Amino acid sequence: MNRFLYFHTTLAAVNSETLSEAGLLHPFKAADGVFLAPHVVEIERGPGGVPGKLFALGREDLEYRDDGSQVWMLAMGGHWIGYQRYHEPNPDDLMRTVGLRGYETTLADGKKWRVPVLRKWAGDCFVSPLPKRLSPVRNESGMMTITPMVTKEFEPLDALGAQILNAFLTEQAWPLEMLFKACVALLAANYRVGEDECALLGLFDESAALRVLSLSIDVPALEADSRRKCDQGLVLVTEASATNEAGE
Known about the structure:
The chain is an alpha+beta fold. 29% of the residues lie in helices and 21% in strands. It has 2 domains: 5-89, no CATH class; 102-242, no CATH class. The strands form 4 sheets. It has a 5-stranded antiparallel beta sheet with strand order 2-3-1-5-4, with helices on one face. Strands 6-7 form a two-stranded antiparallel ribbon. A two-stranded antiparallel sheet has the order 8-9. Helix 4 (176-188) packs across helix 6. It is globular, with a radius of gyration of 21 Å.
């Protein structure tokens, strides 16, 4: 298995609590929340020439090399992330056992990744396809009704989907940092990646990032439906109907 290597100089131990505090839990957390304990070795000299802990998934031999056989990057959190040269992790290595349905697309690394659909075009409106629970909700007349609500763990993704859809409909231009963070959050739904992993692999140029956002709100289905309706002489979708999301 191709894998990421991590090197940290200040962790007293490597466990779910310390990794969470360091912002490094995502590579070692399964879709069901189970902690995937990494293999850890103490080394006297790592990236940057200082001692620390080298850790990664799997039980294969783990060592730091400064002979050019490994690729390393200083991450935003002050730790280091790397991989064996010519053996960078690919989508199959990083895919979660349980993920979200979506579109496969080739990103800037030349490999196919699955982008989850957060808003699905239903023919006359967008709906959220994310997992839901049945919850009692009081309506305007005061009556309690049972309503499907996105499950708590997917609420951040649901909010992101609404934000992306609104930007699409109002033709907002996002700053590159915002664009990058949104794309990382989308891929993280199906893969054990964060900002550092995506940056090291070089997954996003501006074109790939914009495509990822459009796929997440089912733009291909919307465009295909609009073409079909145009060919049949039907009225095209209006912005008002497009923003009529389920439950709103």
